Each structure stands twice: as C-alpha cells, then as structure tokens.
Amino acid sequence: MLVDFGLRLKMVRVQAKMNQHQMATALGISDRSLNNYENGHRDPPTSLTAKVSTDFGIDPKWLLLGDDETELPPFVPRKGA
Predict the structure, then answer these.
(1) Is pTM, for the whole model, over 0.85?
(2) Enclosing domain of residue 38
C-alpha cells in the first residue's frame, strides 16, 4: 500500500471543495473506489494518479510520495471548473 496517498488524495478533494461523490464523478470512478483509495484499502492505478495530477494541478510526485503530509501544494483549478 502507498503510505499516506489516501490522506493526500483527500486533501486535494477537500481543497477543491468537493465531496466524495463529486470527485469520484469528476475522476470517472465509483464512490466506493474513491473511498477505498482515501482510506488506504486499495492502491490507485497509475492512470488515476495521472488524472488527479492533471485535473487538479497537483505534482504526481507529491501525490504519491509527499514531502510533508500536512502541506498541500498550491491548488490549480481544473480547466472549465
């Protein structure tokens, strides 16, 4: 399992002011899948990490590995959001 990936994913969602359903829909995944990723029950596919990074302007290295799990890089809204 990727340590703290779920926490960082949740931080992105909260900063984007989205609930789990909204973010899951935006990412094209089920609510249950997003919940599983956020809670560390499942590892995300590479394609999901890439989509989160692209759509939410997040550095994929930070999303996967983090530098400081209490800090979130500056948020860049999705195009059209």
Answers:
(1) no
(2) 5-65
Output the furthest CA–CA distance in the chain (Å, rounded): 33
Residue 80 lies in a domain: no
Rounded CA-CA distance 23/1 in Å is 21
Question: Nearest-5° angle of CA 44, CA 42, CA 72?
Answer: 55
Is residue 42 domain-resident? yes
Query: Which pLDDT tens digit goes with each residue over 5-56?
Result: 899 999 999 999 999 999 999 999 999 999 999 999 999 999 999 999 999 9
Name the one residue in this structure whose structure tokens are 């789990």. 20
Name the domain count of the chain. Answer: 1
